[in-house]
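Our collaborator T.R. sent over the components below with a one-line note: 'Predict the complex.' Nothing else. No constraints on interfaces, no templates requested, no preferences about which chain binds where. So this is a plain run: every listed entity goes in together, and whatever single assembly comes back becomes the starting point for the next discussion.
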Amino acid sequence: DTGVSQDPRHKITKRGQNVTFRCDPISEHNRLYWYRQTLGQGPEFLTYFQNEAQLEKSRLLSDRFSAERPKGSFSTLEIQRTEQGDSAMYLCASSPNKDQPQHFGDGTRLSIL
Amino acid sequence: EDQVTQSPEALRLQEGESSSLNCSYTVSGLRGLFWYRQDPGKGPEFLFTLYSAGEEKEKERLKATLTKKESFLHITAPKPEDSATYLCAVISGSSNTGKLIFGQGTTLQVKP
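Returned assembly:
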């Protein structure tokens, strides 16, 4: 069990640029979640994949955000035309089924200049 | 609306001084309550799952309990290495996906 891996750990970009984050879940976990966490707050749900199917998206996920999980393995989260308000920690988690604990990666911290 | 509230927001303890953290929840049927520990710059680390009122889980100096409205994380004789943010999260019975609803966390500082 190598755990959930996220890349990059830190991304600094200028406002208006596009960014893409990658998540590699625990290999036997078919459920994958993305969350966003701002300073002093708990993580907030963004989107959920079961295998390759994206089954739920939060209203926090504006049309500038898109996520994919090709072949039900790794996942990517892309933000287009970044804004200051996008600055946050983006966390990925995976679990084997709905009621089991989700295991988190160490996140990607996005800083918008 | 499903909601999780944690208190206090911050807690300072002397080494060895036991205390409790509170997590109050309002959900449409509880499927599970989860406690996580988060260190600065890291992702949440899973501690406990509780599924029904009256359930208790224990690990080293930590003990989690659950009632129909709240959960407590009891810390007995804490050490400086227990300093971290402790997050509580629930899965609502109305969720088809198992998404977690988090509280804002309690930041614990244990001084030697």
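Summary for T.R.: The mean pLDDT of chain B is 96.
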